[in-house]
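Check these lines:
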Amino acid sequence: MKRSGYTRLMAELQGWKSETPAAMFYVDLCHLSAVNRLASPLVADQLVEAVMQRLKSWAGNDGLSARLWSDEFVAIKTMDHAQQAAEEAKSLRDAMTSLTYTGSHGASSLAVSIGVMPLRAANDWPSVVAQAEEACDSAKLRGLNQICFHNTANRVRRAHGGSDAVTEFRRYLDTGALTLQPQPIMDIRAREPRIAKAEFLLRIEREPGVYSPPPPGMIEALELHGLSTELDQFSSQHLLAWLDEHRSLLDRLDNVSLNLSAPSFVDGLFMGKLFDEVRHARLPRNKLCIEITETAAIQHLNVAAEMILDFKTLGCRFSLDDFGSGLCSFGYLHSLPVDEVKIDGTFIRELAQSSVSEKIVRAIYQVARATNKTTVAEFVDEPRKLAILQEIGFDYAQGWLFYPSVPAEKLIELVMVDRRAPIRVDS
């Protein structure tokens, strides 16, 4: 239906002209599926019809309005001055959010996200629609009832946030340029840190022997387009295959870590396949640790708890990454059956300079200890931070003070010789 709606819109746009300034407004109805569930499909259809009528009235005789998909709409409105676009967007938001529906939970107001793209004398309409949609996506990321303008400067900074980033990722995947490189994690409970764990991180081989992290925005683009499972499927299969070839290494490590994105972690199909793959791998218990972000776990608390318990039957451990980024999540640790927490790097970066950061890190440590979780500090890059973490009582640390991510063969060498001294990282 979106394709037919898009085709109709393109036909209308080709015949639309205006002698005055105008802007395109891309509207996304939030939680329309919830209206179907909490009210009924009939109520949802009536709400959509009311949106169409209100959008047409708002756009006026000189404007244009169309439905692209069940919850996505486009409108063009003319105005006296281009500077009016912000006020017009607010008036559109007010018109949309004044619509209400009644379901089993009572009456509720409609919520929307709006992207705005100012129009020019000559317009490449497919690009205009794509840019308006991109602005709407940005609005959705900001929350409910948000308005975002398409911004060329922001687009440059987020050049890898669109479909180009997806194409680039698939090119790397198809050409075999993607790999995982482990970053050693140190046990710092003794005076002399030792390699105890490793987190396998995505890296791209841009030229022979030269590896770098994925470009900024690439992972976010995969999530935005619903394709994060492609990355996580590659990562999980790559790591499990590597571990199958190097089982003896696991005898010398507490565990190794695999990162999963938030969308993949709550994708039942993907997690079902991963469950089968881990089961067939028959790894020693407690040797595979799955890392999920705090945000993903809290947003999907019940699903996360169930999924964690399922994988624990296979002997997997779980780490809660970026913990403390919300600071409202302390109470959730008691409900989540994770084994460790990784302190958000924001606090570790300022640990040696900021007394506030140190107090926050101490508080997070105390909460983790009270819920029987081990603790890991990321971004440890200087001896002063290590000394503070050891004094607090942290279990593990990782960062450039010890090692960056290294080729997998290097990890084997380091672990097998039980090398404790940090390597030198050239700038």
